[in-house]
Amino acid sequence: MNELKKGWKMESKLQSLSWQRVFLLVLHYFLGYGFLYRQIGVFLTLANDPYAIMILPSIQLCIYLFTLAITIWLAYPLLKKGFIYFKAHLRYNLLLVLVLICATYFANLILSILIGILTGMETTQNQQAIEASSRFIPLLTLFSTCFFAPIVEECVFRGGVFTKLRSKTSFLLASLISSLLFGNIHFINAFFTLDFSDLPFLLVYSGIGMVLAYGYEKSNTIFVPILLHFLNNLIAVLAMLL
């Protein structure tokens, strides 16, 4: 714990990517993965089965793998430096992850209970979709939530958006803006269906985003928020599967 306290006092410039790589990361994620690749997936699925109601798992896996590969390629300098720094300060980083995952779990539990009391809602449509997919395609759900999302979303929102905002402004503002963007991607369907009943849970997702940004700020390696994100999602998925 003394090592953790010492680590919190360390001041260092965040590792970051060039503006060009950040721009391509964001464009690839929102335009590519968020829209174009899914439209291609829908087209290919319907060409195979005109009555299909969801993208074929094999096609969805291809979308995940392609998106992941491009993201890793664009974020490679950040991932390379981050891995070296993570290993160099391994004990501190693991202690930081342990403290933050415990804090995240209890904060999420309290916030979810409060939102449930105030709104009568127990879960979000995003969570219900994950629960449904975990029953039909458990391995693909495990891959997408525990490996794809932590790597891709952390490279985009912490390694990209947060670090560039952080270079120009305070931690609070940079983490708030990047976390709100991160929270909103979990409600992307609301903008198409105009059903915003899930929005109170934006507080939960954005809160997670701020914890992830804090982990990056204090560790100076993208692998701390990646590991935090992985553990947070793994706990949620295992709770659904078991």
TrEMBL record:
Return the Pfam families for the record. Answer: Rce1-like
- Mention one GO molecular function: endopeptidase activity
Q: Which residue intervals define the domain CAAX prenyl protease 2/Lysostaphin resistance protein A-like in the entry?
A: 138-235
**InterPro entries per record:** CAAX_protease (IPR052710), Rce1/LyrA-like_dom (IPR003675)
Q: Does the keyword Transmembrane helix apply?
A: yes
Question: What are the transmembrane regions?
Answer: 21-40, 52-74, 94-117, 137-157, 169-193, 199-216, 223-241
Give a GO biological-process term.
Answer: CAAX-box protein maturation
**What are the entry keywords?**
Hydrolase, Membrane, Metalloprotease, Protease, Transmembrane, Transmembrane helix
Stated name of the protein: CPBP family intramembrane metalloprotease
